[in-house]
Design goal:
about 425 residues; alpha/beta; Glucose Oxidase, domain 1; Arc Repressor Mutant, subunit A; 3 domains; about 25% strand; binds zinc ion
Length: about 425
Amino acid sequence: MKDTGSAMVEFMADLYPICRSITGNGVRETLHKVNEILPIEIVEVPTGELVFDWEIPREWNITDGYIKDPGGNKILDFKKLNLHVLNYSMPVSGHFSLEELKKHIHTIPEKPDLVPYRTSYYKENWGFCMSHNQFRTLEEGEYEVLIDSSLTSGSLTYGEVLIEGKIREEILISTHICHPSLCNDNLSGIAVSAFLGNMLKSREPHYSYRFIFIPGTIGAITWLSQNESKLGRIRCGIVTALLGLGERFTYKRTRSGDGYIDKVFEFILKKEGVLHDIIDFTPYGYDERQFSSPGINLPVGSLSRIPYGQYHEYHTSGDNMDLISGKALTESFDILDKVIAHLDADRRYLNLSPKGEPQLGKRGLYDNVGGRNDSQLFQMALLWVLNFSDGNHSLTDIAIRSDIAIELIIEASEKLAEKGLLKLLN
Ligand code: ZN
């Protein structure tokens, strides 16, 4: 059987060639592939629909794009790399002088060997992206240009699934899905989220978990606008992005900075001994900024490794599969898995024998302890759970305070409840 890291890499390699955008068939195809890992509902919201202060744009699709030099040689080909066409470019077909054509070519002179990723969602324009090295070789003459794209009334597409837990309260996990052939930003987030959802499905979680796969900004705004009535059920959320590259983790706190999820992330990143930075909320970055807008104000934090914009290949052709390691993806997956395990233990018990320690021996709880390798630790877990099951502390709080594995704290609470020493409050 394949390990999760290799499976995620393989999944990303499969998604890599697809030309995604904020709308269009690339998004649909991506969601169909996500659906093979984690069954999701695919939702279409029609062009023109108002979503808060925005409007669903026309749908963009593209089949081809190229530039031919004066000698008739194809010097740039969308079919080889979809970043070569400005994302959301208007269609164009014709012959242009070099001077005219240059007005429509984007490069990054400081990174001359990389092709930039550029978009023009809300301004009608056409254009190409190429390496600055190639740009400098262009000779005078007439160039043949084609962009076979369409902007038509259609829809914006997103994917969503609710993995039902024991309670209706939800934890939200959100990932953007709008970047074309770019790996760390954003295929790594899609892969880790899809595989996390797949894993959660086989568990019986306490909370319900809602995974959403949405185009950045407009998709988050659309989802929020369409699901406003459900927002009250969301306990907290995580935006996942940039999880396949780098040694360090970066956790960006929720807007208030002192949420339940902030406490859990800070604890896990420290406990796991991984290099990490914890940064405060800013109204910039990924879709945490939409979830944290003042009229929504959900406690949503964000996990990345190297933050956006801070690696050389960011938003360029260099952000390809060569950059991604299965190891980095697996570490990211494992951190989120542990965070989820702790978030999910957010339930409180009441000690029904709170005056003095209850006698564990006569209830057979020491027998329970005796035969195990971790008997001392399990006994400590029993004592911690008894002491802090005062109605104010959740199992998560107890795990954090005692630094005992959450699985052991849960097991201790279940044993104590079985013996009638604890009552579940929520
Ligand atoms: Zn991006």
